[in-house]
């Protein structure tokens, strides 16, 4: 029988709590749910009012992985949904606005992915993102070097950047921007990616072509497109271990000399939040948003 729990007055069914989802560490579904419950405050702040794409892995990272963009069958009627424009026609997507909705979504075993715009203004970006993806044998260590260059370049334009691990191999840079058409933000991000390649031609590539990427860091500027999404801060990832897309300080970025220094798993996050709070909280303050030149 599926256990039912009450979360903020809502009845939420929680299934297969003893199921091991991360075989490398024995991390169970119950531990996944506990992680999301204990990091709910900062996670919800970054999910709120953003339509979600779910990367589901109900049998763990070695099982089937699939994206779910439309409202999943069986979604409770108290979960907030909204119509979102798409090139192929409007679709209805989930918004995780509260703890009950978060626990319902976490029970589906998902990564949370969000666009760079809010539901009230589709295609008007309030975030800028760079996804720094290392081509082996390059690692996150090389990503950190590129991130520091991009941070300084953004600062020259009056835009303050913040960093988080992708939870996989690379690093994400995020910045709050004044509402700007996603097309313009994408153009600007591409300009900076091209600039990074010119400044560090042996280290950076701005094109997605696979043959160009070994030993270099691919600066993916395209995730600023209105139709695209990026792994949200604090989401678990479908990796061998329960790794988390974790905000990091610029000191940690500058001091990184080994990939293991910037690998954080679910059990690490409680102490980091106690020590640092939400390092990405400034992204939530409209007063700190920069204007594109």
Automatic annotation (TrEMBL):
Residues 28-279 form the DNA ligase D polymerase domain. The keyword Ligase applies. The keyword Transferase does not apply. It comes from the Bacteria. One of its GO terms (molecular function) is ligase activity. InterPro entries: LigD_pol_dom (IPR014145), MtLigD_Pol-like (IPR033649), NHEJ_LigD (IPR052171). Gene3D superfamilies: DNA primase, PRIM domain. Keywords: Ligase. This is ATP-dependent DNA ligase. It comes from Streptomyces acidicola.
